[in-house]
Amino acid sequence: MKITDLRMETYRWDRTVPIRNGMYVYPTSGLNVVKVETDEGITGIGLAGGVQGAEEIGSVILDHFKQFVMGQDPFDTERIWDAMWQPKLVGRRGITTRVISGIDIALWDLKGRAVGKPVYKLLGGFADKVPVYIAGGYYEEGKGLKELAEEMEESVGMGANAIKMKIGGAPINEDVERVRVVRETVGPDVKVMVDANCAYRHYEAIEIARKMEPYDVFWFEEPVNPDDYKGHQLISQSTTIPIATGENEYTRYGFRELIEGRCCDILQPDGLIMGGVTEFMKVAAMAQSHDLHVAPHGKQEIHVHLVCAIPNGLTVEYYRGSTDPMWDKTFLEPLEVKDGFVSPPDRPGFGIDLNEEALAPHRVR
């Protein structure tokens, strides 16, 4: 089997109401789809991390990588990944590694389709379901404490035993009050995570962490800039709340810094950003050797397979309609939450098939 074509399709759609985290406003959402075709008629589907506003650049980068992919055996994922990752020119961070991620994910999907096995089985098959948390709690125009509480109630009503909310976009004491309301709303048995999206300086993060401790926060995500390794370490040492980070980290080398510096308690690699399945599994193995849990950021359709493949997988992030109006329309068979868990589909590859009819009006490239 040989690879005969490689291409990217980009889709964008408006949110009903723009959402805001501690640093950024998101009026739109979307999908970057990488497709790898072969001479045996099998096509692998991959998803690449957001390149919003740089779609043309992403396509040019993809074209650059064709020289390392075309004509190759899709089962040689290590060889192809190594050929694409040339740190003098591309691959260390940013859009280039995101495109590599999409290509690598597509290759693993293709391998699964070729042998008739789900990806999580190819990678080790440690579990057939994994705990899930519902991501949300964004800042929105006209959304107060009442609306935040209602959203959290709805998320728990979907069958989840864990939810996540944003902080960092309001004064510290105001955010602490938001955390208090959410904790009282969901009760003592539901895990509450908070995510600052790098909004704080380390001393501000220490202040809010100490003020949130009475509300039994399960983790404090991305308190500071991803490159502030020392800041992460200082925060980790100053609070009883576990620190989680890694969604903006790249490759095994970046995660090596987090692990060796004991900068966090929970690692959050995003396979669509940090290097794909091939690199994710190396990070998971490093984390396992240091007795650290992995709770990836991002697309549940991909990460349910990766977490189910490893013994140190903690949970999967799950997005719902309040954060993405196309969440149940993008794929033909969306994942469902059942009793606090999600299970990978027992179909070849990642088991995802695009809802081409629903996506067609939103294609931008």
How would you explain this protein's 3D organization?
This protein is of the alpha/beta class and 365 residues long. Helices cover 37% and strands 19% of the residues. A hairpin with a 4-residue loop joins β2 (25-38) and β3 (43-47). α1 crosses α3. The longest helix has 21 residues, at 95-115. The relative contact order is 0.15. It folds into two domains: 3-117 and 355-362, Enolase-like, N-terminal domain (Enolase-like, domain 1); 121-342, Enolase-like C-terminal domain (TIM Barrel), CATH 3.20.20.
Intertermini distance: 28 Å
SSE string, helix = H, strand = E? EEEHHHHEHEHEHEHEHEHEHEEH
Largest sheet: 9 strands, mixed
Q: In CATH, what is the homologous superfamily of the largest domain? A: Enolase-like C-terminal domain
Q: How much helix is in the residues?
A: 25-40%
C-alpha-based Rg, rounded: 20 Å
Could you name the CATH topology of the largest domain? Answer: TIM Barrel
Mean pLDDT: 95
How much of the sequence lies in strands comes to 15-25%
- By DSSP (H or I, 4+ residues per run), the number of helices equals 12
Please state the structural category. Answer: alpha/beta
Architecture of the largest domain, CATH level 2? Alpha-Beta Barrel
Give structural attributes.
TIM Barrel; 12 strands; 12 helices; Enolase-like, domain 1; 365 residues; single chain; three-stranded antiparallel sheet; alpha/beta; 2 domains; nine-stranded mixed sheet
